[in-house]
Design goal:
Structural class: alpha/beta
Number of strands: 19
Pathway: Lipid metabolism; fatty acid beta-oxidation
Radius of gyration: 29 Å
Pfam families: 3HCDH (PF00725), 3HCDH_N (PF02737), ECH_1 (PF00378)
Catalytic activity: a (3S)-3-hydroxyacyl-CoA + NAD(+) = a 3-oxoacyl-CoA + NADH + H(+)
InterPro entries: 3-OHacyl-CoA_DH_NAD-bd, 3HC_DH_C, 6-PGluconate_DH-like_C_sf, ClpP/crotonase-like_dom_sf, Enoyl-CoA_hydra/iso, NAD(P)-bd_dom_sf
Distance between the termini: 27 Å
Strand order of the largest sheet: 12-11-10-13-14-15-16-17
Oligomer: single chain
Protein name: 3-hydroxyacyl-CoA dehydrogenase NAD-binding domain-containing protein
Largest sheet: 8 strands, mixed
């Protein structure tokens, strides 16, 4: 977590060494600054090279120090860059592999830059709702040119060094090499050791032939594409400052912009997401070094929509898949759908023909359970009924090899009960994919009471390999996501009872930032699914209160898009949700039948009843140990349920509002005679956090 110093001939080499990406933490900054001062004091040293150990030059700030005093301790990054820039001896950056964020800003403070081809270069701060805060918005436009620099800063996307070296007039890289970059940089440093004055990026001019018109055009484009996110436009204004201001004035404006963005709820949400995504894979009682089981071949039971989508994830990752079905026609339909999905990607230019052929070559099919005997992981994706699951797992228990992981894609059923159908419950786990399984990022990994730790570690690792965000859940009805969404859906139903229309509720939620409101979501998923759950609830939890409006809808056969009618009407072949007079009449009769007193309900109340229902149920899940941490709940909702990213997830949003305010609103909702008052009693964890003045995250 520091930097090493050595001398090669007359060149001092300072190597950043803070794995995994040489984050510029306090110790690394201090050691680098000390290295420059040491080289300055040594008369035998004529030049300095800064490089990075391992697989990166530097990925930027050290995320382990985010929010801690060390992040700002002197020398901070600005101070380090000043030390480098003001060195009396030439400083050459030997850039390789990864050069991002503060790492790129440090290199821009060097007098020269030698890069290895293939190096990924970026200023990704915008993805955290920030702008580069150590001169990136001022130096990159000077070194690379205004337009390409603005594109990099506003998008945050990496570009390979050799592509940037092709930009006309660029002074970002003095040399791009295919060979060892450190050797090339040392040689280059020797060659320029006597050149004076030393070139500084800050002394270059950032020019554009038609700056006013260009930046106005860019404002229109960036503003339209960055709705709900203030950082891209602040980045743009900082880059405009590089053209119109003196360097030091531009730097002050950059720092002011950075400080302002740090305080925005959008940046706080994005930073929360950044850390939540990384911590989700950590399981408190499963050590990081737990040996993993080998997953070289996968079996999937069921060739329907879910089975096919699940199979594609593994085919995409280069893992052979065997799909099992009970009938050849079902297999043929499933394989045809997979082909159609891949062919669509080929037509859109997202997949090359040879990759398509490679993936299909990894796919085999069978009607015989015995053909799954060599699979390392077998995932069932059959009908959501416990008797069907029992039949499948009893057969798997007979044919699967010892040590094979047996996974259920169940979305609500008891994984412990499913495990009990086998003689190997330690090998059974839930792998709840979200539809469409080949697109949606979320994977709920459901840990049974006997699931082995190495099974859990293996499934989390395979989730990463197939590019899913894997979140661990304990066993309960609906796990994390669906248990919470039931309360959200109940509130949506009560809002209809009180006078809202489906489109009013959906518009309020979509204006808040959800990808889709609850009634459009129901029509897309199929209203019959919720109907089946409510019928089960009537037996298992007879005291749970629901609006009967959804049952009346289903009794008319209005199951959603698949039947051309649900909460909305749909034209053949189209997905546009058209308000339905049939539903308006149904709701009017329903309200009359239950003696409902309707009223005007604000968008704010609609949103808060739905979102706080998620929050309160999540607090119960945390109290019960079903979810490990509040940030895991947020990951489930951000990656699986369309919760707006700029709000950080339900728990982050509740923290932003203040948990005291959330509970006050819940107390008001509890007084509503049309609602389920008992539900709004704050979960013990939520009440405790409010009493202690604490937050979820």
């Amino acid at each position: 977590m520091t930097a090493h110093y050595e001398v090669r001939g007359s060149v001092a080499v300072i190597t950043l060494d803070n794995p995994p990406v040489n984050g510029l933490g306090f110790a690394t900054r201090a050691a680098t600054a000390a290295g420059v001062e040491r080289a300055e004091a040594d008369p035998a040293v004529t030049a300095i090279v800064i490089t990075g150990a391992g697989k990166a030059f530097s990925g930027g700030a050290d995320i382990k120090e985010f929010g801690s005093p060390k992040a700002l301790a002197e020398p901070n990054l600005l101070s380090l860059i000043s030390v480098v820039e003001n060195s009396s001896k030439p400083v050459v950056a030997a850039i390789h592999s990864v050069c991002m964020g503060g790492g790129l800003e440090l290199s821009l403070g060097c007098h020269y830059r030698v890069a290895q081809s293939g190096t990924k270069v970026a200023l990704p701060e915008v993805k955290l709702g920030l702008l580069p805060g150590a001169g990136g918005t001022q130096r990159l436009p000077r070194a690379l040119g205004v337009e390409p620099a603005l594109n990099m800063i506003v998008s945050g996307e990496p570009v390979e060094a050799q592509m940037l070296a092709m930009v006309p007039g660029q002074k970002l890289f003095d040399k791009v090499v295919d060979a060892d970059v450190l050797d090339a940089a040392v040689k280059f440093a020797e060659e320029v050791s006597e050149k004076r004055p030393l070139p500084k990026v800050r002394d270059l001019k950032a020019r554009h032939p038609n700056a006013d018109a260009y930046f106005q055009f860019a404002r229109n484009m960036v503003g339209g594409m960055s709705k709900n996110f203030p950082a891209p436009l602040r980045c743009l204004e900082a880059v405009a400052g590089a053209v119109t201001m003196k360097f030091d004035d531009g730097m002050r404006a950059e720092r002011e912009g950075f400080a302002a963005l740090m305080m925005t709820p959008e940046s706080k949400a994005l930073r929360h997401l950044f850390f939540a995504e990384r911590v989700a894979s950590k399981i408190s009682d499963v050590p990081e070094g737990t040996p993993l089981r080998t997953i070289a071949k996968v079996g999937v039971i069921g060739a329907g929509t879910m089975g096919g989508g699940i199979s594609m994830n593994f085919l995409n990752a280069g893992i052979p898949v065997t799909i099992l079905e009970t009938k050849q026609e079902a297999l043929d339909r499933g394989v045809a759908t997979i082909r159609k999905n891949y062919e669509s990607q080929v037509k859109k230019g997202k997949l090359k023909e040879d990759k398509y052929a490679q993936r299909m070559a990894l796919l085999s099919t069978t009607l015989n359970y015995a053909d799954l005997g060599d699979a390392d992981l077998i995932i069932e994706a059959v009908f959501e009924e416990i008797g069907v699951k029992e039949a499948v797992f009893k057969q798997l228990d007979e044919v699967a090899k010892p040590g094979a992981i047996l996974a259920s894609n169940t979305s609500t059923l008891d994984v412990d009960k499913i495990a009990s159908f086998t003689k190997r419950p330690q090998d059974v786990v839930g792998m709840h994919f979200f539809s469409p399984a080949n697109v949606m990022k979320l994977l709920e990994v459901v840990r049974g009471k006997e699931t082995a730790k190495d099974v859990l570690a293996t499934v989390m690792a395979i989730g990463k390999k197939i590019k899913k965000t894997a979140v661990v859940s304990g066993v309960c009805d609906g796990f994390i996501g669906n248990r919470m969404i039931e309360q959200y859906s109940r509130q949506a139903g009560f809002l209809l009872d009180e006078g809202c229309s489906p489109q009013q509720v959906d518009k309020a939620v979509e204006k808040f930032g959800f990808a889709m409101g609850p009634f459009r979501m129901g029509d897309l998923a199929g209203n019959d699914i919720g109907w089946a759950i409510r019928k089960r609830r009537a037996v298992e939890r007879a005291t749970m209160k629901y609006s009967a409006s959804a049952d009346r809808l289903c009794e008319l056969g209005r199951f959603g898009q698949k039947t051309g009618a649900g909460w909305y009407d749909y034209l053949p072949g189209k997905r546009d949700a058209i308000p339905s007079p049939v539903v308006d009449e149904l709701l009017a009769k329903h309200r009359e039948a239950i003696g409902a007193k309707t009223r005007q309900i604000s968008d704010e109340e609609i949103v808060h009843r739905l979102v706080f229902a998620l929050v309160n149920e999540a607090a119960h899940l945390l109290e019960e140990g079903i979810a490990q941490r509040a940030s895991d709940v947020d990951m489930v909702y951000l990656t699986g349920y369309g919760f707006p990213i700029f709000r950080g997830g339900p728990m982050c949003y509740a923290d932003t509002l203040g948990l005291f305010n959330v509970v006050q609103a819940m107390n008001r909702f509890a007084k509503n005679p049309m609602d389920d008052g008992a539900f709004w009693t704050p979960a013990p964890l939520l009440a405790r956090l409010v009493a202690e003045g604490k937050s979820f995250t």
